[in-house]
Amino acid sequence: MKKTFFLFVCVFLGLTTQSQIIVNDLICSGGGSSLTMDWSAGECMTETYEQSEIILAQGFHQGSKNQETAVFEMVDMSGKISVYPNPVHDNMNIVLDNECLKNTVSYTIVNEGGQLKLEGNNLAKTNEINIQQLPSGLYILNILSGKKIMQSFKIIKK
Q: Whole-model pTM?
């Protein structure tokens, strides 16, 4: 009889008790002219601070970081672009054929985080780019015609 009663109480409490109440909360952070909003469902809050219209709830919310580095349209091209040496120490060569030079050609070099490190305009048939000031690592070289990417290369800086 005691076992049955205890089992009944445990089942009843298990069905009626909630370990977390699911509430949609907005957790906002802003920087510059942009605003990032995340919401969480049922995550534990450890403290809440309120002042006039501002509410800061801190706890175990796991934020995310999305960063758009650039949006480029690809150019459909028939020209040939050569980049050498790779890996590179100090100077990198970019050679364009005549088909590529029909429009103004430029380049950008970005690091793995998408930060612009170098750029140049009005490329000729043969170009030597000094990248000695860049730290060792992996970079993306984009060859552009206007704002459209003609071709991208992975560059290893030693």
A: 0.53
